[in-house]
C-alpha cells in the first residue's frame, strides 16, 4: 500500500459547526430558561417545533466563503417557521398525449442554487424560478442525459454526460428516392462508427407516421433511450442554462450509459467508463489527463467532492479483485491504493472524504461498509446484516457511483436507515467511523419512515414521510450529540409525485428549501387525456 498526502483539512460545514459548538457551550445555561418558556407555550405539533432552542444558532452558522470552483458545501439555515410554502410546482403537461398513458421517461439529475431549480428530463435541462414555478430556461443537449453528478460548484455549475445526438433523416418530411439513397449511405457510414442506426426507410416511414398520430416529434423521440455511446460532456450554468463548454470523450466508443459516470472536485471534471477515464479543467474544458489504454484493471467509477477516488476492477468473473485509489485530480496519478480483500463480489464508492466503500461478500446486496483514513489505510468496518438496513447502492437506475441515497458519511460519523418494521416505523442509526460501533439511534416513533439526506452545520437532515397521509411530510433536523429532533420544514408531497424512496426520488435541501423530484416521470392517474406528469416539488419556509 502506498502512502498518500498529509491528512486533508476539514470541510466547510465542519469548520462552521466547530465554531457554533463553542458558542453554544457558552450560552447553554442562559438558554434553558427561554427553552422552557417556549415548550410550555407551545401546543400540538408546534411543541415538536420548539423542542430545541439551540437549533437556530447551529443552523444559522455561516460557512467559510468558498472559491467559485469549489464544490458547494452549504450550511443550511432553518426557516423562521417550519410551515412549508410552495416554491416550485413543476408538471410536465401533455405527458400521456406525447408518450402514452403507461410510458415513463428518465429524469436523471436534480440540482438547486439560490435562485433556480434544475431538472434533467430525457435530453433536456429545464430551469425553474422560485415563487412562480416559471420555467425560466430550457436547454436541449442533443441526446439523452446518461450521467449526472450531484455535485455543484459554489457559483452554480455542474457537469452532465449525454449520448451522441441521434438525428433522424428529416423524419417529418417524405423523402424522394434519390434522397433516400443518400440517406442510406450516410447511415451506413455512421453504423460503422457505432451509431447503430436502423436501416430501411420503409420501416422508418411507418414508424414516423405512427409517431405523428400520437403527437410525437423529433424532440420527444430524443427523450427515449438511444443505442448511442455516452460520449458528450458539458459544463452547465444552472442559473442560466448556458453550456459553458462541451467536449467529446476521447476513445470512448464503448462508453455505455449504464457503465459511465461523471463527477467533480475543485476545478476539475472527471469521467470514467469501463476502459478509460479523462479529466478536464473546469474553467474552459481543457483536457488535463486521460487514461484510455487497455489494462487488466478497468474503471468501475470515480467519486468526487472534496477528494477524488477511483474504483478499479481487475480480472474477470470469479477471479475479479478491486482496488480503491485516491487520485490527484489535476494529474490523474494515484496518491494511495487500497486493495479490497479477495472474494468480494461487488464494490461501490459511497463517499470520497471520508473514504467509505460498500462491499458485497455473500450476495448482491451490501454486507459491510469499509472506512479508510486519509492515507488509504483501513480504519473500521460497519456491518450491515441482511435485511437490517436500507441498501440501495447497487440498485441505482442512473449512474454507478455516489448513488447510495440512504447512506450519509462525514468526518467521523456515518448514518444508516433501517428497513421499516411496519410501513411507518424505522430508525436512523449513527456509527463511529473510528471503531465501526453504534453511537446513537433516532427512532421514527410511528410518525413515518425516515432516511438521512445530508449533514449540515453538524446536524443531520432527514426526510420523514407522512404516516397516515394527513400529517405532513417533513425534513427534520437531528442532533447527533443530544439526540434531539426538530422540524426543518413541514409540507405535503402530492400523490402524483409518487412515494418518496431512496433510489427512486431525489430529495435536496439547498438554501433553506426542500425539493422532491421523481427520477422517472409517469402520467398522473386520471381521466385527463393529456395526462400531466409530476416533475418536481419545491417548498420554503416563511
From TrEMBL:
Species: Streptomyces spectabilis
Region named Disordered: 156-228
Biased composition range(s): Basic residues: 192-205
Top-level taxon of the source organism: Bacteria
Pyrrolo-quinoline quinone repeat domain residues: 233-437
Bilayer-crossing regions: 28-48
Biased segments, Basic and acidic residues type: 167-191
Key words of the record: Membrane, Transmembrane, Transmembrane helix
Name of the protein described by the UniProt record: Pyrrolo-quinoline quinone repeat domain-containing protein
Amino acid at each position: 500500500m502506498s502512502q498518500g498526502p498529509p491528512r486533508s483539512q476539514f470541510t466547510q460545514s465542519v469548520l462552521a459547526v466547530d465554531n457554533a459548538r463553542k458558542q453554544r457551550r457558552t450560552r447553554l445555561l442562559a438558554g434553558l430558561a427561554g427553552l422552557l418558556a417556549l415548550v410550555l407555550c407551545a401546543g400540538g405539533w408546534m411543541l415538536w417545533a420548539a423542542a430545541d432552542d439551540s437549533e437556530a444558532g447551529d443552523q444559522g452558522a455561516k460557512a467559510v466563503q468558498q472559491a467559485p470552483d469549489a464544490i458547494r458545501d452549504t450550511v443550511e439555515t432553518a426557516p423562521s417557521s417550519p410551515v412549508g410554502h410552495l416554491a416550485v410546482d413543476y408538471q410536465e403537461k401533455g405527458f400521456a398525449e406525447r408518450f402514452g398513458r403507461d410510458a415513463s421517461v428518465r429524469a436523471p439529475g436534480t440540482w438547486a442554487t439560490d435562485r433556480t431549480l434544475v431538472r434533467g428530463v430525457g435530453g433536456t435541462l429545464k430551469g425553474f424560478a422560485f415563487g412562480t414555478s416559471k420555467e425560466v430556461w430550457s436547454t436541449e443537449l442533443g441526446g439523452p442525459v446518461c450521467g449526472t453528478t450531484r455535485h455543484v460548484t459554489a457559483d452554480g455549475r455542474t457537469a452532465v454526460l449525454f449520448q451522441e445526438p441521434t438525428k433522424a433523416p428529416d423524419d417529418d418530411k417524405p423523402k424522394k428516392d434519390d434522397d433516400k439513397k443518400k440517406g442510406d449511405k450516410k447511415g451506413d457510414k455512421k453504423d460503422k462508427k457505432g451509431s447503430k442506426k436502423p436501416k430501411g426507410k420503409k420501416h422508418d416511414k411507418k414508424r414516423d407516421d405512427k409517431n405523428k398520430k400520437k403527437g410525437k416529434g423529433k424532440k420527444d423521440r430524443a427523450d427515449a433511450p438511444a443505442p448511442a455511446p455516452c460520449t458528450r460532456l458539458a459544463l452547465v450554468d444552472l442559473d442560466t442554462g448556458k453550456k459553458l463548454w462541451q467536449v467529446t470523450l476521447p476513445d470512448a466508443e464503448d462508453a455505455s450509459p449504464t457503465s459511465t459516470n461523471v463527477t467533480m472536485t475543485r476545478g476539475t471534471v472527471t469521467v470514467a467508463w469501463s476502459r478509460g477515464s479523462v479529466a478536464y479543467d473546469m474553467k474552459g474544458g481543457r483536457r488535463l489527463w486521460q487514461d484510455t489504454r487497455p489494462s487488466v484493471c478497468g474503471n468501475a467509477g470515480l467519486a468526487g467532492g472534496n477528494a477524488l477516488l477511483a474504483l478499479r476492477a481487475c480480472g474477470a468473473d470469479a477471479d475479479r479483485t478491486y482496488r480503491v485509489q485516491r487520485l490527484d485530480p489535476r494529474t490523474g496519478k494515484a496518491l494511495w491504493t487500497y486493495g479490497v480483500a479477495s472474494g468480494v463480489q461487488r464494490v461501490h464508492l459511497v463517499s470520497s472524504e471520508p473514504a467509505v466503500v460498500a462491499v458485497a461478500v455473500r450476495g448482491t446486496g451490501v454486507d459491510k461498509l469499509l472506512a479508510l483514513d486519509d492515507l488509504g489505510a483501513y480504519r473500521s468496518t460497519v456491518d450491515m446484516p441482511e435485511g437490517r438496513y436500507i441498501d440501495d447502492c447497487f440498485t441505482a437506475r442512473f449512474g454507478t457511483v455516489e448513488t447510495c441515497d440512504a447512506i450519509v458519511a462525514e468526518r467521523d460519523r456515518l448514518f444508516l436507515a433501517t428497513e421499516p418494521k411496519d410501513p411507518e416505523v424505522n430508525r436512523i442509526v449513527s456509527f463511529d467511523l473510528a471503531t465501526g460501533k453504534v453511537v446513537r439511534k433516532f427512532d421514527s416513533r410511528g410518525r413515518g419512515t425516515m432516511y438521512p439526506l445530508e449533514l449540515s452545520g453538524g446536524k443531520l437532515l432527514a426526510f420523514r414521510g407522512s404516516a397516515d397521509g394527513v400529517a405532513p411530510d417533513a425534513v427534520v433536523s437531528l442532533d447527533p450529540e443530544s439526540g434531539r429532533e426538530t422540524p426543518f420544514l413541514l409540507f405535503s408531497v402530492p400523490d402524483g409525485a409518487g412515494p418518496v424512496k431512496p433510489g427512486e426520488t431525489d430529495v435536496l435541501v439547498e438554501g433553506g428549501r426542500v425539493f422532491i423530484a421523481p427520477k422517472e416521470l409517469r402520467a398522473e392517474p386520471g381521466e385527463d387525456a393529456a395526462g400531466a406528469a409530476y416533475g418536481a416539488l419545491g417548498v420554503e419556509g416563511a
